[in-house]
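Q: Please design a sequence for this.
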């Protein structure tokens, strides 16, 4: 009998599902795709099999269950269906794992209940993650389903960095502490950056900047995370597409007491109507750059605020680490937006951080250095691959269990 080596990875977001079917023999993709605008009139599924034509379906996907059923159909059409004997496991990205989950976890009813209990601290993410899990479990109840948590890699952050300076009893009662997110990406990228540098992760201090729709920074020392910018929820830290990042908690009281906004309205404001979209009306960095290039003042301010926060975090994490060997950019903005990388590192040459304009301008999907030869700190662009990391961790867990 041939061994099952395929892992299906599901990354269910609030209005999208991304999926990849990965062969663990060589990390190749048997298929990949996404369903976007779930619940809207203009839904879209894009399915890319390794062999054959890419397929697009334009239709309404009423909810995540319908979207996942459509994904299952597309896979089945390629003889890669969820019923395929080649499937070893399904790996799920789960954003918030709280204090309990610091490692990949085999999913059962009790694990789902715990992920559900954490919804209030990851309201944009955990509900969608749960739907993905429930639909996949219903379709393949016999198959191991593994949760890989965004918070796991940050479980090593020291108490001094993980603790908010608030009343300890209240914090303990409500499990208020800094958890951090995007950990699977920070873990994958910090290891890939060490490979790019030809060094052992154990001897490196790095600042990793994951700049996607959500954005976060982390300080990684000897392969272990020692500080990260997101906190109790994925709202703290850097400026994001629709989230404010750091803001004075006092503004919540002000907007409530003086502005008359309800708590739910303030939640919506800070999570969905702030960041780049709040400042200039666009959450896509490509649009922000295009408009700023045409002299649009709102877009320019959005860019400036975004980059100022980044530079501030690079400086802070330099202080946390004491010595920095590499600054690493990743995710959609980090991998593609040269002006963001250039501006984030501008004025940091006293710290040994410099960007070579010609190297920075190169467009490539490969991990690469963008610092000049004489730079004391390596500045790198390293594409993230959360799905491959999730597949590896899920596959390893299933094999350990056998
Ligand atoms: N060429 C580009 N230039 C600038 N920004 C880009 C480019 N390509 C993608 N992005 C940005 O990347 C972001 C999405 O990043 P991504 O890592 O795919 O997000 P997520 O996985 O969180 O959905 C978007 O804001 C988009 O504007
Ligand atoms: C945790 C988080 O912010 O994830 P994303 O960037 O996918 O929204
Ligand atoms: Mg992402």
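A: Design:
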């Amino acid at each position: 009998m041939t061994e099952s080596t395929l892992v299906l990875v599901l990354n269910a977001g609030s209005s999208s599902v991304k999926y990849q079917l990965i062969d663990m023999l060589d990390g190749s993709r048997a298929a990949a795709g996404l369903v976007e605008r779930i619940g809207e009139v203009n839904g879209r599924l894009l399915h890319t099999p390794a062999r054959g034509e890419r397929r697009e379906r334009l239709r309404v996907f009423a909810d995540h269950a319908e979207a996942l059923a459509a994904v299952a159909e597309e896979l089945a059409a390629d003889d890669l269906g969820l019923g395929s004997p080649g499937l070893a496991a399904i790996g799920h990205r789960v954003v918030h794992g709280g204090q309990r989950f610091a490692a990949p976890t085999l999913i059962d009813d009790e694990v789902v209940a715990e992920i559900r209990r954490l919804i209030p601290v990851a309201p944009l993410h955990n509900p969608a993650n749960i739907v993905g899990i429930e639909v996949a479990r219903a379709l393949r109840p016999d198959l191991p389903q593994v949760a890989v948590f965004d918070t796991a890699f940050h479980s090593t952050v020291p108490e001094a960095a993980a603790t908010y300076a608030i009343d300890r009893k209240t914090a303990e009662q409500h499990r208020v502490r800094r958890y951090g997110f995007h950990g699977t990406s920070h873990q994958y990228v910090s290891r890939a950056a060490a490979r790019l540098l030809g060094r052992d992760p154990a001897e490196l201090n790095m600042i990793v900047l994951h700049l996607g729709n959500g954005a976060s920074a982390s300080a990684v020392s000897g392969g272990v995370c020692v500080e990260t910018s997101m906190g109790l929820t994925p709202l703290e830290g850097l400026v994001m597409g629709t989230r404010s990042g750091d803001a004075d908690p006092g503004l919540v009281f002000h907007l409530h007491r003086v502005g008359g906004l309800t708590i739910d309205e303030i939640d919506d404001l800070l999570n969905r109507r702030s960041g780049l979209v709040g400042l200039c009306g666009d959450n896509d960095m490509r649009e922000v750059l295009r408009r700023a290039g045409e002299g649009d003042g709102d877009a320019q301010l959005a860019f400036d605020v975004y980059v100022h926060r980044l530079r501030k975090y690079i400086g802070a994490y330099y202080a946390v680490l004491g010595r920095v060997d590499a600054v690493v950019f990743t995710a959609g903005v980090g991998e593609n937006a040269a002006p963001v990388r250039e501006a984030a590192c501008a004025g940091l040459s006293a710290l040994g951080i410099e960007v070579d304009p010609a190297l920075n301008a190169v467009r490539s999907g490969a991990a690469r250095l963008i610092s000049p030869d004489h730079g004391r700190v390596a500045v790198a662009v390293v594409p993230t691959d959360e799905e491959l990391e999730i597949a590896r961790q899920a596959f390893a867990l299933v094999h350990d269990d056998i």
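Q: Thanks. Anything notable?
A: Residues 95, 125, 150, 181-182, 212-214, 234 surround acetylphosphate (ligand 2) (CB under 6 Å). The first strand starts at residue 6 and ends at 12.
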